[in-house]
Amino acid sequence: MGLLSVPADPVPAWAKIDLQLHQPYRTWLGFGRLRCDWCGEAWGRHGCSSRESAARVFLYTASPAQRQAALDSDDLTADDLRLRRSVPARHRRRPRPHPRHRSPANPLTALGFTDLVAAL
Ligand SMILES: [Zn+2]
User: Fold this and answer.
1) For ligand 1, a single-atom ion, which residues have Cβ within 5 Å?
2) How much distance in Å is there from the Cα of 7 to the middle of ligand 1?
3) Could you report the per-residue pLDDT of 84-115, keeping only the tens digit for each?
């Protein structure tokens, strides 16, 4: 039963590869701004967008030991530990100014039955 004893790595390979590929470098011979060496994007707090998503997936799938190893090898920074799971959706659907289906309060008034009902 050798297969059962092999620990499965929960971290997807693309996340680990992206963390390795997307590294910062300084433009203008080390005097300019930080850019991603792989995709050329501006380097933010969590790197480029590819690195940020890879770091996010790594954080949510890696074991504590893997996370510590990534921190020790500088694949992950302390800032990455504060990545949020997702940005809360702020675009809620607004109600229509004119509701399409407006039913009358009393359907009998639309039909003119109120006088009839009152007469009964
Ligand atoms: Zn990149």
Assistant:
1) 22, 36, 38-39, 48, 50
2) 30
3) 766 555 666 777 777 676 666 666 666 666 66
